[in-house]
Amino acid sequence: MNKMERDIRPDGQAELEYQDGEYRVIKPGTFVACAVTGVHIPLEALRYWNVELQEAYATAGIALKRLQETGKTPK
């Protein structure tokens, strides 16, 4: 982006529909919140989510912990 361009993305939390291997933006924003920790995850850094639970996770470790809590994977 050069100095004449503006970032027109709205600030704030995005609302997403999590799908297999991708997500659909329902409400534009710059981040989503981790379902476990509440930490803000910039959309460009979002790598981990659960389609069934419709939740985003900040790290692979947090995603695994959540799956174990819900009984989706062995402990």
What does this structure look like?
The chain is of the alpha+beta class and 75 residues long. It has one domain. The chain is 13% helix and 31% strand. It contains 1 helix and 6 strands; from the N terminus they run E-E-E-E-E-E-H. The chain has one helix at 60-69; strands spanning 15-19, 22-27, 31-33, 40-42, 48-50, 55-57. The chain has a two-stranded antiparallel sheet. The chain has a two-stranded antiparallel ribbon with strand order 3-4. A two-stranded antiparallel sheet has the order 5-6. The longest helix is centred in the C-terminal third of the chain and has 10 residues, at 60-69. It is globular, with a radius of gyration of 14 Å. The N and C termini lie far apart (46 Å).
Overall average pLDDT? 89
User: What fraction strand?
Assistant: 25-35%
Note the gap between the termini: 46 Å
Number of domains: 1
Task: State the strand order across the main sheet.
Answer: 1-2
- Low-pLDDT regions: none
Strand elements, count: 6
Q: Helical content, roughly?
A: 10-25%
Number of helices: 1
- The radius of gyration over CA amounts to 14 Å
**Large-scale geometry:** globular
H/E element order: EEEEEEH
> Could you say which structural class the secondary elements and strand pairing correspond to?
alpha+beta
Describe the biggest sheet? 2 strands, antiparallel
